[in-house]
Amino acid sequence: MDRRQHRRAGSTVLAVGILLGLGTGATGCSGRGAAAEDVKGPGDPVGTLHRAADALHAAGSSKAGTSMEMATGGTRVTIRGRGVYDYRHRLGRLTVMLPEDPTGASEHRPITELLTPGALYMKNRGAGVPADKWVRVETATLSDGNLVTGGATDPYAAAEVLRGTREATFVGRTVLAGTPVRHYRGTADLSRAARYASPGNKASLAAAAKGFATALVPFDAYLDDQGRIRKLRQRFSFVNGRQKATVAVASTLLLFEFGIPVDVRLPAPADIYAGRIAEDDPGGDGGGNSGDGGGDSGGGA
Q: Which of 46, 94, 294, 296 is an S-S bond match for 136, by CB 3.0 to 4.6 Å?
């Protein structure tokens, strides 16, 4: 698949993105420059948040729980996910549960997502994709950098957003699921985060800085005494392409059981869908956009 086909694939997945469709009808770490630039001492909130991604890398791995909420047209849509993540190899696997229909019966099969540096794989995506095939898209081709399109924010990408922290305050100490944590509240700048991000996230965060309604991301972060994120709530704003209105999305990440074994294997090239993806249209407005699937190689991270 050439570069233009990749771009069309990215645009398609954004157009039929899980959250948008439902609600609107390098191994290693970097970024130490950001931390070094602003650290005033061990108690400095900005410097502490800049180092949060490094603390996850040092932890190695964890289990993860995700939720993504959006209110539109008087209806609140929530998508939940659960899985595991390897911070050193930047590989993760999530099972994403889509909302029930109004009658209470589930109308969507769970979607399996594989998170890798620069790419997202989805299985059971629907939209005409065979059940045994994966869809692959380069996250840098998405205008939100895949911070919201997949219905779950990549845990390491979410942590690297904090490298862009401009201002933050220490709210206080509390206990989260039995673990003492420090609560910080602040605002991150996606452009700054892209500057200090690891190689696998630079392009995606740079795309998000340009694609959202604003590059500023308000957040609440809860860090344990090792500086690891235990809970992170980030609020993104994007422009609804259909109604030209600004929509707010809240993404919440929970991390626990650090250091567990994680084995994430990417699909073989033959298992990646190379056809066209029809737009989901749950709102019934007749929108019928389509585009190419991301059907190139499923090589390693």
A: 294
